[in-house]
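Discussion board: Methods & Data

I've been asked by a reviewer to show the raw model output for two of the constructs in my manuscript, not just the figures. I'm not sure how much to include, so I'm pasting the format here to get opinions. Each protein appears as its amino acid sequence followed by a line of discrete structure tokens. Is this the kind of thing reviewers expect to see in a supplement, or should I convert it first? Here is construct A:
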Amino acid sequence: QENYIRSEEEQGQTAVLVGDLSGLWGVISIADQVRDDSKKLITNLKRLGVEKIVMLSGDNKRVAKAIANELGIDDHYGELLPEGKVKVLGELQEKHGMAAMVGDGVNDAPALASADLGIAIGGAGTDVAMETADVVLMSDEIRKLSHAIGLSRATVRNMKQNIYFALLVAATLLTGVLFKTVNLSFGMLVHELSVLLVVINAIRLLGYGDRGKSKKQVAL
């Protein structure tokens, strides 16, 4: 039976022994259902430049290894209690710098609080996890994580574009005023037009992921 149990665990299943005082009746193998979009999420995260993806699990080590291999996760840790997840997360932060933690259960709450960025999966998450996390995805579709990362990066790029453009317009108008090549009415018109362009550029984020290049980048 030990060899059978070990074999089942290596395949990502947990063996449950059934019997009574008279002896063993049999073994039932159970396993967590890996989400259909989980592997796509890992692919998207690597495409977005996430350097290292690590799974912290409370399951036994053989089950954790099987799931990590199936999903293409870089590293894995099994049989971790909540404090164990915090410890491993601290080691990863020391080795790799900033680290984000994604979780949805009570056992994930301490690690979510210790991470540089805690992300809770809201649709399937517990209240404790959502209250502890810095970011809550209000959906149980885990693939939305890569969308959130892509959108946040697009937002930062958009902000930089708007700031650089506003500074360029302001510097140009100031130079024109100092050298008396720009009159007041024309300067005000250019300034208002530049504000309108900044607003239009920011509005583009509302369509992120719905069409064109953004959709291809996130690959949902």
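Construct B, same format:
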Amino acid sequence: MNNPWIQMVPGIHRRTLVSTEQIMQMEVKLEAGGKLPVHAHVQEQVTYVIRGRLRMQVGDQLHELAAGDAVIMGSNVPHGVEVIEDALVVDTFTPPRWDLLEQDRTHDKMTR
């Protein structure tokens, strides 16, 4: 699957790697200083840091994450990110984020 990079917010871009009816995985590039506002979704999420450093709020806890670290977010747990240094992460969701998969399809149609 060769999906496009899509901007989530300024300085944060995502690309879906794989998806099935039960799970999806995406790669996220984050630039230092970028912020993903606190949000929540029904899907459970695991974030694994490939490189860089992030500060993540998960519920009422703050985590500082670096390469090799992972954090899990349960269903409907509010979470957000502040990027300390340029980073690359892999996010896994179950069930899939159908809203993001639809963005992939819409973006693909717009760029043809």
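Answer (T.O., handling editor elsewhere):
This is acceptable in a supplement if you add a one-line summary per construct. For B, something like: The CA atoms of residues 38 and 80 lie 4 Å apart.
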